[in-house]
What we know:
This protein is an alpha+beta fold. Helix content is 21%, strand content 42%. It has a domain at 39-112: Sandwich (Immunoglobulin-like). The strands form two sheets. It has a four-stranded antiparallel beta sheet, with no helix packed on it.
Amino acid sequence: MKKFYFLLLLLSTLQIAQLQAASFTFPIVEDVVVLQKDEQVKVFYNKSSLYITGLNEKATIEIYNMLGKRVADFSNVQLTNNFNKRLSLPMNNIFIVSVQTENFKKTFKIVTK
């Protein structure tokens, strides 16, 4: 058993020495980053209203509680840059909002306070 521990210690020491001897270089890359559509879309809940920004098309919006029960849904809603919908959700809860258009689908987590 002692031989096994000694062998294990020897192997791990060799691996650590190899890692320390290796040189790690990372190239510097300068790129212009264009945000994807899903990075531009924001969903949030504030003062009894659901807000969706960053989309300008018809969408289906579904809201689920954490148990998976659908608590609200809206079909063929015309979203503008700053869409808001009056919505009464229970306070101090977490909900999942699914936004789906013809070319876009993403789920968001919102917290009601």
